[in-house]
Design goal:
This protein is mainly beta and 123 residues long. The chain is built from no helices and 11 strands.
Length: 123
Amino acid sequence: QVELVESGGGSVQSGGSLRLSCVFSGRTRSIQFMGWFRQAPGKEREGVASIHSGSTTNYTDSVKGRFTVSQDNAKNTLYLQMNSLKPEDTAMYYCAAGFGWWLPLQRESYDWWGRGTQVTVSS
């Protein structure tokens, strides 16, 4: 079993920045890739960014050039640096981890999930 705990969410104005963190524990050797997803009220959960083996990254088009995913295995922590935030980035953000077939932004690829951290961007 793998446990994931997110932090770093909050309220910012449009154009601001936030850094989300996700501490992972338990059977961490099972993890091959990790990702960030988000879900806005009334919408489906969507993939935002993913990282495989701590290096290969993938982003949804709407965040390319603004968000950066990274992983520090010494600290067992996944990060999502979010710059130039927009009101449409407002959502609950979830950390996820998985192994096996990697479909970077597809929920079905992931085996473990955190409980989420709220990000609110005001105009």
